[in-house]
Amino acid sequence: MNRVFAVAAVVIRELIRRKDFYVLFVLTAAITLLMGSITFFNEDDIARYVKEICLLLIWLATLVIAVTTAGRQLPAEKESRTIFPLLAKPISRTEVLAGKFLGCWLAVGITLIVFYLFFGVISLAREHELPLVNYLQAVWLHWLMLGIVAALALLGSLLMTPAANLSIVILAVIGIWTVGEFLNRVAAKAGGVSGWLIYAVYYAIPHLEIFDIRERIIHGWEPVPWGAVILASGYALVYMAMLLAAAALLFRRKPLT
Amino acid sequence: MDTTLRVNHLRVEYPAPSEPGGVKLAVNDLSFEVRRGEVFGFLGPNGAGKTTTMNVLLGYVNATGGSAELFGVDVRQPIARQRIGYLPELTYYYRFLTAEELLRFYARIFGLNHHTASRRIDELLKLVELDGVRRRPIRTYSKGMQQRVGLAQALINDPDLLLLDEPTSGLDPIGRMKVREIIQRLQQQGKTVFFSSHELGEVETVCNRVAILHQGCVQEQGHVSDLVAKYQCDLEQVFLKVVGYPSPPRHE
Amino acid sequence: MRRPALILLLLCAGSLALTGWVLRQDALRGRDQAKSALAVLLGDGRRLFANHFLAKADAYFHRGRYPSLFEVAEKQAGNHLVESLGSEGGDAGHVQGPECDHSAGPGEEAHAHDEACEHAEPSGGPDDWIARLAARFEPDRHVHLEGDEDKEMLPWVKLAVEMDPHNVDAYAVGGYWLREMGKTREAEAFLREAQRNNPDSCEIYFELGRLTELTTQDWGKAGRLYRLALVKWQAANAKLEKPDLIALAQILGRSAKVHEAQGEYEAALQDYTLLKRVSPSPEAVQRLIDQLQKRMAEVRSPKSER
Ligand SMILES: Nc1ncnc2c1ncn2[C@@H]1O[C@H](COP(=O)(O)OP(=O)(O)O)[C@@H](O)[C@H]1O
Ligand SMILES: [Mg+2]
After folding, report:
1. Where exactly are the structural domains of chain A?
2. What are B194-243's pLDDT values in tens digits?
3. Residue of chain B nearest A82, judged by CA positions
4. At what angle do helices C184-197 and C202-216 cross, to 10 degrees?
5. Predicted-complex ipTM score
6. Residue C17 is nearest to which of A31, A61, A224, comparing CB atoms?
7. Least CB-CB distance to A232: which of C24, C64, C133?
8. What are the C-alpha distances in Å from C168 to residues A159, B249, C207, C270?
9. H or E stretch including B111?
């Protein structure tokens, strides 16, 4: 386990020392503040659209960070050939993969905390209240979602070139966000063989949209029932485990040279 | 004397759609042994199959035929690599880490405790003369410094056997001399060193024995002095003869 | 390798930033350039954005509950706007309520109606375990904004017309809500801007009429605006195969009321008679006609007695 953590620590260090994260954070903050500075119809204190824009930017920025960080790990090891001295040491490929994933997931978690702190400040300044429980739920669910995304990107990096992986994972994620929850209806409408196929896709894909409680946060709804949060956490962990197991199988067999 | 490394009728094929037969034969019926405490030079021109052999020893590439053992254990077993240090050719270490952080990372993988790791790191950074720049990111290092970082990481676990793949390639004369000195110092400490090279000047001075590889086969092996005596010329000319290169006229 | 996505995000972010900048410039300069830099930049996609923003305003009205594509489709196929031409008839409160119809606006009737919908099944789709789990994370009750929360919708209306100054619905919705919030000056300015950008729209004249009616009680002016609205409606719908009868019914309904308020019973009766022919609930209109005729008789009879 110590070996897994050692690998993870390097991933986190990399994220902290790269510029991407800072660029995205500054952009998010700047756009939010700019949008927040507009007055509509001489009405001050309009809060929700600022929260919405800020959250949208956070979702996009952290998606990009998660996919690029996770998708880059193994190809970069191969490209810089660091995988050779690493695997010459007493560490298995599965441990390397686990460490890479853990590092990405933790790094994304740190990113999320920074971004949501900014969001909290904006929300506090605008609405003069800070529903902590709701925000904690939002961060937690968002983190689970990005865990699935990171596992997906890690798996994809073993199957595709980095550029293809990046675009396909981002497209898939945005596709699931937007239409994932409707596939069952489409299937019901389509019927027949195609209906069954669409149902199969519906049940196979990780339903990332579940983890999106932005509307509740923006419009000040009460927290999600904890039972549902626990269920969703289990759901996310199962998907992460499956994706990582597939990645581990692939990585173990993949020739290095 | 015990055998630290043994390669027996090793054969390695790469899938290569462009070649006739669909495979590229990189190593063909290769056999040699490295004994404990030896510095063994693994010589051959580019493309001879040196890196491929190293890759088999490290378990990165599976042999098509034959066998290879480290400390009497088949290389396919991960335990075989417990006591080795490896310096790959042309590696760009994590550029965002400092030399100290890099070594600490590898120490953690070996499960060294913090105190032992710190001591080792201090020793090694002194040995490879990077003590003064230990807190600078590797990104800012010259090629020679990067190669010495590589040497330091290969030694982090105080290994009994060192596999060095072209440790001096791309270095200037001073860099090479430093690497040579380090190899000699390791031998004095009783380590076994197996290193590949296509440059011969350095080999003569540090190696006990050499094997000369050409197109995947060992053409000649033995003590440097025996070979020189046998062919009546220096190692460079032995090398050229063995790989079938017409020897230049001798100036007496 | 990570460049494309970064560039994509930068572009998204950039366009958002530009929106903000353009809006700010407009605000600072005192506005009106129908063709703002942003509009040119985004080309036709801006109409899509405008509709999206308008849908967002509607979702904001429901505290974040979006009508899904399916709900919108079902609605268009099924219970299309059953106009209740009561006292508040025909306000453009919001355009696309989910499964419930709010076209009556927040009048008394509307509230009763909403309560009936409050516990309606959220989406009415297939009921599998994923859908059931997902439903617990979404806003799951049908509620509306309360008190001064109304203002939260305004940015999206503004962004919608900024994207597409010809989005008459957005102007109508915005005008309605500004009026509801008592921001009559802003409502007036907004609708005037709408009129400049859409001089041929009957909806805008109608909204201006409603605003005049409610804020100035100047029935004469309101009536003139409704008359203009009718003219515009005629021009736009005369040759259409399926004329927009709902818009016509709205205008006629208000026009009749205004005539009635001014004591112009004959004109009101004329409007009602027309309305009865186009309204989806002619019985209701007939009742209004009966009432009006009773009033007319009352007015006439004392004369004849004399
Ligand atoms: N992954 C590979 N696929 C196909 N051919 C390879 C691969 N790696 C090396 N080779 C070929 O095998 C031969 C030996 O290569 P290598 O062991 O790298 O030589 P050296 O290290 O002695 O220069 C070369 O002809 C090289 O082209
Ligand atoms: Mg080589």
Report:
1. 2-253
2. 999 877 767 778 888 999 888 888 888 888 888 777 777 777 777 777 77
3. B93
4. 160
5. 0.89
6. A31
7. C133
8. 50, 95, 11, 28
9. none
